[in-house]
Automatic annotation (TrEMBL):
Annotated segments matching region Disordered: 410-445
Occurrences of domain Signal transduction histidine kinase subgroup 3 dimerisation and phosphoacceptor (ranges): 229-294
EC assignment: 2.7.13.3
Membrane-crossing residue ranges in chain numbering: 51-72, 78-97, 104-120, 132-149, 156-174, 180-200
GO cellular component labels: membrane
This protein's UniProt keywords: ATP-binding, Kinase, Membrane, Nucleotide-binding, Phosphoprotein, Transferase, Transmembrane, Transmembrane helix, Two-component regulatory system
Catalytic reactions on record: ATP + protein L-histidine = ADP + protein N-phospho-L-histidine
Domain called Histidine kinase/HSP90-like ATPase: residue spans: 341-431
Protein name per the record: histidine kinase
Superkingdom, taxonomy of origin: Bacteria
């Protein structure tokens, strides 16, 4: 087996081209801010927090403008007009640090260099600091801190390199009698300030990303819980619908034998109804197999209803929860879906009491009123903080209750009580008294 010769390797990126690329990236970082022109606390909940950055930069400008002018006139002997122009150029852009720190640096840095050249023409005094006077140096550190908090590492490094290079060039230009100690001091302190600002910025971004991920995880968890609960409800309601379809099939198949003298078209119609019902049952079984694609097995016992509420309450009482049941003697015709939903709502409400308020007295009431079935579960506060009696529930709490009530076209009202208890009230519609009732679920389905 012959192989074609490999082509020549791609040319390596030389040092010169890599240097040009890095310089272009540095120039882009210095000319384009990496953040929108908004202050750091623009999304803070409190008004005073949103105004805090503006108050800080206003205080900086109000402090450094007069101090810089005073130092330049008294210590360096500059004329008042020249000192005023330099002081304003070197300190007034501090007002921009809240929203545009990079643009502020582009004004302050050239102003500081021009100020150093102006001072170079003056005779050095005994205590003169050159090329950066003390107020200029301190104000510049605030600029570097703002850059570190808002800009990327590439931009911060480019600013630091330009600052250090300016100090070196000024030292070369100056005569030997000039001590450029402030240039070295600014280079060292500037690196420290930029690192601190960058670390604080990255920590804030990491915290923000973590909060976003937690929010997304909570939303995904809630969505998954809702889908799981809907799937579980669909599995349970399959038995209810399958029972009715089975009854339709049996009635259609047995009609020719139960009703004498049926004409042939009627027999064919009943046979068609039975075939359609059997086909629907097959489709429902295939649908249920999809819902059980996780390998879980379905319950073979009949679905519970209001007739088993007494057993549920007795089992809960034996578990240590004082529960009182008030069940109306005559509820009328309750549809199977409402019957199952009412039982599950009471079951989940009692499970929540066991988990969150063990030992609390609980009242369960089921009544039929004005064409609706009203289910009310009210518990008082727990007598004392104890460990939960059980750790696993039958569903997903209020999510499952809400979905069951929505399925029947009813409404659900839940919430804490003033005394520390909790209330669950479900209202589900019942069929009119003259509507045909559905046959009860048989135990052998």
């Amino acid at each position: 087996m012959s192989t074609s010769p490999a082509g020549p390797p791609p040319p390596a990126d030389g040092l010169l081209s890599a240097a040009r690329r890095n310089l272009r990236e540095l120039a882009h970082g210095l000319s384009h801010a990496s953040h929108p022109p908004t202050p750091p606390l623009a999304n803070a909940p409190e008004r005073w927090q949103r105004l805090l950055p503006y108050a800080l930069v206003l205080a900086l400008a109000a402090t450094f403008i007069p101090v810089t002018i005073t130092v330049l006139t008294s210590q360096y002997g500059l004329p008042g007009a020249l000192a005023g122009a330099l002081g304003v150029a070197q300190a007034a852009p501090l007002l921009m640090l809240a929203h545009r720190p990079l643009q502020a640096w582009w004004i302050i840095f050239p102003a500081d260099v021009v100020g150093a050249l102006v001072l170079l023409a003056r005779d050095p005094g005994q205590h003169d600091s050159w090329p950066w006077p003390p107020p200029v140096l301190i104000a510049y550190l605030f600029v570097l801190l703002a850059l570190g908090l808002r800009e990327t590492w590439r931009t911060a490094i480019a600013v630091w390199v330009m600052t250090a290079a300016a100090g070196v060039v000024l030292q070369i230009v100056a005569s030997s009698d000039r001590d450029a100690g402030s240039a070295l001091l600014l280079t060292i302190l500037g690196a420290v300030v930029l690192v601190i600002g960058g670390v604080v910025r990255e920590r804030g971004e990491a915290t923000r990303r973590l909060a976003e991920q937690e929010t997304i995880s909570e939303e995904e968890r809630a969505r998954r819980t809702l889908l799981e609960e809907r799937t579980r409800i669909a599995r349970e309601l399959h038995d209810v619908v399958a029972h009715h379809m089975s009854v339709i099939t049996v009635q259609a198949d047995s009609a020719p034998y139960r009703i004498a003298g049926l004409p042939e078209p009627a027999r064919e119609e009943f046979a068609s109804i039975a075939a359609a019902a059997r086909e629907s049952l097959g489709e429902m079984r295939r649908l249920l197999s999809v819902l059980r694609s996780d390998g879980s097995e379905g319950d073979r016992a009949p679905q519970p209803g209001l007739d088993r509420l007494q057993q549920l309450v007795e089992a809960t009482v034996r578990a240590g929860l004082p529960v009182k049941l008030s069940l109306a003697a005559e509820l009328g015709e309750v549809p199977p879906a409402v019957d199952l939903s009412a039982y599950r709502i009471v079951q989940e409400a009692l499970a929540n009491v066991v988990r969150h308020a063990p030992g609390a007295r609980t009242q369960v009431s089921v009544r039929a009123s004005r064409g609706h079935l009203n289910v009310l579960v009210v518990n008082g506060p727990a007598p004392e903080r104890t460990s939960p009696l059980e750790n696993a529930g039958t569903g997903h709490g209020l999510v499952g209750m809400r979905e069951r009530v929505r399925l029947t076209g009813g409404s659900l009202d839940t919430g804490p009580l003033p005394d520390g208890g909790f209330r669950v009230a479900a209202r589900m519609p019942l069929p009119p008294p003259d509507s045909p009732s559905a046959p009860p679920l048989s135990e052998d389905l």
